[in-house]
Fold:
Amino acid sequence: MIFVTLGTQDKPFERLIKAVERQIELGNITEEVIVQSGCTKYQSDKMKVIQYMPIDEFNEYLKNASLIITHSGVGTIIQALEIGKTVIAAARKKEFGEHVSDHQQQLLENFSEGGYILPLTDFEKLNEVIEQAKNFSPNKFTSNNTNFIENTINEINNLLRKD
Structure:
């Protein structure tokens, strides 16, 4: 099963869901496809589209998926990487009214340059990226939260000592 998640942004991301459906129509995707579409209202007889789902259900689909296709949302990407999933991610773009800025492009570049994900930059080439995913082994993601918290505490302590 392929799990496609568009996040819960307040703007639609039809470009990605249409690209997935196109690959099903072409016969390039033969697995079951489950889509968490968020505010992207989309009907399909080729995929199971669920607008919003409880977190337990979301996590179950994430866990059972052979492949994750997602927007460049840092939370979804990290969650998928932490459980060892292969991720194809695409950035929402301001020019298409999919987000208020193009920050997801930077996230996409950073995660792909780190060897964590496969970037989808040309939606017409989704099948090629899916083929790459079959032999892709993502780098192990390690959270930097501990260092971040330690550095923040040190900075706060340094500021307090200055007074």
In short: The chain has a mean pLDDT of 89.
